[in-house]
């Protein structure tokens, strides 16, 4: 059974594992260490006979605000070398696809901010319960391009996907449920109990049957082009990182800081 780390907590009981992203002071932004711990822990839980379902949640007020651009990942986010950038992005996409292929189903418990990389992880989960006032989206589309993990059009349809990706606008948990981006939205005080209720019902089904049920649903999604679009999206993401706009934003954020650059970027959308 995997052990908790400083940035990723694990609890197991009654066939349910609860995995908590534990960087609340950073709104659970994804550092390299957190990503590595999360993928490893979920992989080990998948091998355990004592776990039939996983609940994935975030400590504090947010599920996950995206990639941590202020951490050690910052210097690697937009690279001058497109070959290195391609390797890095493909490696990250493979990690998320590994989560997609786990046998054990994952129930995401989404509150507060669920943005960029956080939304990518959410889309790899099998069932998503969101707080009604959650904020879900890909604001990075406003300067750095659309992320390569291309599940969004398959989940919500091309019209809703384009509306989000061509504006960078986020949606509430209620709106996300209406468009099919999450399974359901509930009041924040019911979030934990509803996610657990769904996971408990999963544990009533034998684990091998659950695995085949999940694989069958995933096969239909992949027949729609999910995996192919994601891998093609890697190369498009590299092009986006090397556009004039992306390079100017990257240079600006290095000069004035990431937070200030993000506020500056988004200010025109708040009017």
UniProtKB/TrEMBL annotation:
The keyword Ion transport does not apply. The keyword Glycosyltransferase does not apply. This is Enoyl-CoA hydratase/isomerase family protein. Belongs to the enoyl-CoA hydratase/isomerase family. It holds the Pfam family ECH_1. Keywords: Isomerase. One of its GO terms (molecular function) is isomerase activity. CDD domains: crotonase-like (cd06558).
